[in-house]
């Protein structure tokens, strides 16, 4: 016996999709990042600084990735009412976050290759000019981080008010991570250039590039893990799964012939899940309606399908 959730399937667009503050923030940051990217690449080439040039190219990937985040918000909003998307368009944002993480891994590899080349074949650097540009780049990154942090705080307040304080916008997080890695490489570039100018440590410039690449790769790998868990529905270890299992067990604890044969829970929105539960019971009091009533307290379950198998 199959019974869907009382909410009609054509209401799938009600699943949480989009983040207006995040979309505005990422759009503004994309523009700022693109402008600074051009400045840093030109300055790194002119002043012959690998750390500065790496920072500029690194920023170019961020401009593209943050642009992808902005596009994902717009696409998710545009197709939110398209009924071909069975559970809404939220995963467009997650896909953009995954792509951004892959971009980060690629840029980390590029930074390592460029830095190793400079270690093997060092060239003179115009330190003072390069430091000025790196400081400007750091200031821009700080401004961008504040913009995205404000967008995150706004969305966090909305989630908290809705009773979901622990759900994160992975698309916004990916954009924020790109800005943070930009800031990191700017700091490392400043340290490397200062060391080279004051102590003649030309090797410090490419070494800092390698250190920055390692940190970027670590952050990117974590983001890849978080986004793939959602894209591949690898969330059966989420606390809500055990909460559903426990709730059903408590609801029918009086019945000696009711057990959960199968349970699937997967995320369909930042704050919502779909659930398919299969029970085995010969008790006529165990019905799809009573199961749904018992799970009604879980506001995050946006769609529930119940199957009762009679032995």
Strand order of the largest sheet: 1-4-3-2
Write the CATH homologous superfamily of the largest domain: Cation efflux protein transmembrane domain
- DSSP helical segment count: 8
| CATH architecture assignment of the largest domain | Up-down Bundle
N-to-C SSE string, H for helix and E for strand = EHHHHHHHEEHE
Instruction: Report the radius of gyration as a whole number of Å.
Output: 25 Å
Shape assignment: elongated
- Could you tell me how far the N terminus lies from the C terminus, measured between alpha carbons in angstroms? 12 Å
Mean of the pLDDT scores?
A: 81
SS-based structural class? alpha+beta
CATH uppermost class of the largest domain = Mainly Alpha
Count of DSSP strands = 4
- Give a quick account of the main beta sheet: strands, pairing sense, barrel closure: 4 strands, mixed
**Residue runs with pLDDT of under 50 for 5 or more positions:** 1-14
Helix coverage percent of residues?
A: 55-70%
CATH fold naming of the largest domain: Alpha-lytic protease prodomain-like
- Overall structural domain count: 2
Structural commentary:
By secondary structure, the protein is α+β, with helices and mostly antiparallel strands. It has two domains: 2-231, Alpha-lytic protease prodomain-like (Up-down Bundle), CATH 1.20.1510; 239-309, Cation efflux protein, cytoplasmic domain (Alpha-Beta Plaits). The chain is 65% helix and 10% strand. The protein has helices spanning 20-47, 50-78, 90-120, 127-161, 170-199, 204-231, 239-251, 288-295; strands at residues 2-3, 258-267, 273-281, 301-309. Helix 3 (90-120) packs antiparallel against helix 6 and helix 5 (170-199) runs antiparallel to helix 6. The protein is elongated and about 85 Å long. It starts with a strand and ends with a strand.
């Amino acid at each position: 016996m199959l019974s869907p959730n009382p909410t009609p399937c054509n209401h799938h667009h009600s699943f949480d999709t989009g983040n207006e503050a995040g979309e505005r923030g990422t759009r503004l940051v994309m523009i700022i990042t693109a402008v600074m990217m051009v400045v840093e690449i030109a300055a790194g080439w002119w002043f012959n600084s690998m750390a500065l040039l790496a920072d500029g190219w690194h920023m170019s990937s961020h401009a593209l990735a943050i642009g992808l985040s902005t596009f994902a918000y717009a696409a998710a909003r545009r197709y939110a009412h398209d009924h071909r998307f069975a559970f809404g368009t939220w995963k467009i944002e997650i896909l953009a976050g995954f792509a951004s993480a892959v971009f980060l891994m690629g840029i980390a590899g590029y930074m390592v290759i460029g830095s190793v080349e400079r270690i093997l074949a060092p060239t003179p650097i115009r330190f003072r000019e390069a430091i000025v540009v790196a400081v400007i780049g750091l200031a821009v990154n700080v401004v961008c981080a504040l913009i995205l942090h404000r967008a995150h705080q706004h969305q966090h307040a909305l989630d908290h008010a809705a009773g979901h304080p622990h759900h994160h916008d992975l698309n916004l997080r990916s954009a924020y991570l790109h800005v943070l890695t930009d800031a990191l490489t700017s700091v490392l570039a400043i340290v490397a250039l200062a060391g080279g100018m004051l102590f003649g440590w030309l090797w410090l410039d490419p070494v800092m590039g390698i250190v920055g690449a390692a940190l970027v790769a670590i952050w990117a790998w974590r983001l890849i893990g978080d986004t793939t868990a959602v894209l591949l529905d690898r969330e059966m270890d989420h606390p809500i799964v055990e909460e559903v299992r426990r709730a059903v067990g408590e609801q029918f604890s009086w019945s000696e012939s009711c057990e959960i044969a199968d349970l699937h829970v997967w995320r369909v929105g930042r704050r919502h899940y779909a659930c398919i539960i299969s029970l085995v019971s010969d008790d006529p009091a165990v019905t799809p309606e009573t199961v749904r009533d018992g799970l009604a307290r879980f506001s995050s379950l946006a769609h529930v399908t119940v199957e009762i198998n009679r032995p």
